[in-house]
Write the structure tokens for this entry.
Amino acid sequence: MDTTLGLVKGTGLGLRRSLVNQILEAPQPDINFYEVAPENWITIGGKFGKAFRAMTEQHDFVCHGLSLSLGSTDPLDEKFIHEVKHFMHEHHIKLYSEHLSYCSKNGHLYDLMPIPFTSEAVSHVAKRIKRVQDIIEQKIAIENVSYYAAPGQEMSEIEFFNAVVQEADCDILLDINNIYVNSVNHQYDAETFLKSVPAERIAYAHIAGHHVEADDFLVDTHGADIVDPVWKLLGKAYELYGVFPTLLERDFNLPALADLIQEVQTIKSIQTAWQTQHDKRTA
């Protein structure tokens, strides 16, 4: 089975249809790769299909799934997984990632629900991830998710996450904002969580904004600018593990492309600052 680590580099941006023509007309040198949800693009045709083909011919891409429902007891949608495999091959897409959650129970729930942090759930989810990897014929990356309740909890979030990753032998999509949001909502130390991640498995990372409902309750929306504590946590991650590919997620309240590029440039500046310091230390 092919490994996925190192297939993309630098800084990335989640691609929305409204951005495609703008980027084709004015390529963005600060963006090294793009991410799409396969559910939204597999069946695309017409002028958008042609534009997307032009994008994938010119740039590196990764897929980030929305509906695989890895934690569900519903059967895996293997037909869809084969469609994803074909889509990736057709567009030379580097990697497929998904959420460590579930979104179906005898039908889609249209939300990402938390998997119970139990040993039984570890085995169940790891088995399903292995099956996906067998079909895709490469490792996939699993994302640590935000959650607002932990029903039936037998272990901590990081213990559960690491156990699934180890048993499934998969890679990691490290979501920096989700670590911060969960650390506030569930009152744990974000840096302690970060230090426990198996860094050798990080394929790439997400960074995004969130909504502040209250001082002790944050909602992961991907609809706001990134706040300073999240930027600092990204810097800490680079300090611990070196620079890894990092992608800006913005799903709602989409600003002008220039504003998105500013946040991508902030990612790049943090990466460059760490690399400069590292080079000085090792010179």
In short: The chain has one domain: 11-282. The two ends are 37 Å apart (CA to CA). The chain is about 45% helix and 20% strand.
